[in-house]
């Protein structure tokens, strides 16, 4: 649908045309008419579908330049809040009289409080900071008509529910707009408590990622994962690649590994200070890097332009985060690729993605290329099989070598380590058997004595 088909003001249409927006996305088709009428809305839609503008456009259309707080937009992280603020500031030039302010964690409290007490028409904030400002001031919230909760499942997961409780309790019957890529059980509970379940608009597709994203599983054949990342970059030559790891430590180690191998990379991790993350995002959006190594802090909501490829060197324990990772590419219905490293000893999570509806292509490294590979075969178990403690320790020894730099004679060292574990377990079994025989002998003697 064209934006001029909505009941928008002439000034709003003028800004949209100036920004190059003429056609609404499917989620905007559904949301904008309801938001303009101040309906409560809960929207589940995949990342990159245009959720942010689906609430910003009606807000900018409806807000009046009063210098009184009319809209509160709550984002779970300072990066998401700043991104929404930058999107809203795009309307400057036509809506210069509408005052928009940003308040995020990590900034000076007294300075923020002074700015907050001077009020604004639209407030964009992280929940902890907003709760502090509301408790520390005596502002009249009577003019607040709309509250937007962006990335709601992340707000719930990060234990911001109490802050949101307090914020909503201070406002009399506002319009509540909730946006999320996924609706978890915790979010469903939250929705029933505040606005009921009848407002849910599911505009997502079957796999929670854009239909323009292609999925690939790459069998690493137990090779060192960092070396595989380097080989992947050499083969694919990505325009902009985001590489995701499961921990801040692995993120830092991979970043250092790539830097040592003369691959100019960026990094987005919770280990960075707020100032460093802000600077890094600016540099990424200025096209200073072709590769950015990320922890899952970058998987939620961030709109990094022109991400051509996403690579997960391991899959997150919460499989929903895979969809958020993959959603960093294929945004605004552009084409994108999501790659996953796996090996035949770790197929549980890849198989879970397949059961969720992901239909991947299979690849492997061979002679400096990525070539077609056979699909994952689900393991067949005869009866119920339990992994012994010995099996677990041997697997752990093998797995540790995957993310460590390969050193001379490493195979011999791994074999020696495994032999040591086997000897330890053999001694343990012998000791247990001796104790068992001793107990049986005592029992036998006791029975004979009793007779």
Can you offer a commentary on this structure?
This protein has 451 residues and is α/β, with parallel strands linked by helices. It has 3 domains: 200 residues, Rossmann fold (3-Layer(aba) Sandwich), CATH 3.40.50; 168 residues, P-loop containing nucleotide triphosphate hydrolases (Rossmann fold), CATH 3.40.50.300; 67 residues, no CATH class. The chain contains 16 helices and 15 strands. The strands form 2 sheets. The chain has an 8-stranded mixed beta sheet, sandwiched between helices. Helix 2 packs parallel to helix 3, helix 6 packs across helix 8 and helix 15 runs antiparallel to helix 16. It is globular and about 95 Å long.
Features:
43% helix, 15% strand, 3 domains, alpha/beta, Rossmann fold, 8-stranded mixed sheet, 451 residues, 7-stranded parallel sheet
Low-confidence stretches: none
Largest sheet geometry: 8 strands, mixed
Tell me, rounded to a whole number, the average pLDDT. 83
Using the CA coordinates, give the radius of gyration.
27 Å
- Oligomeric status of the shown chains? single chain
Strand order of the largest sheet: 10-11-9-12-13-8-14-15
Question: What CATH architecture label of the largest domain applies?
Answer: 3-Layer(aba) Sandwich
Beta content: 15-25%
* Count of extended strands: 15
Helix share, percent: 40-55%
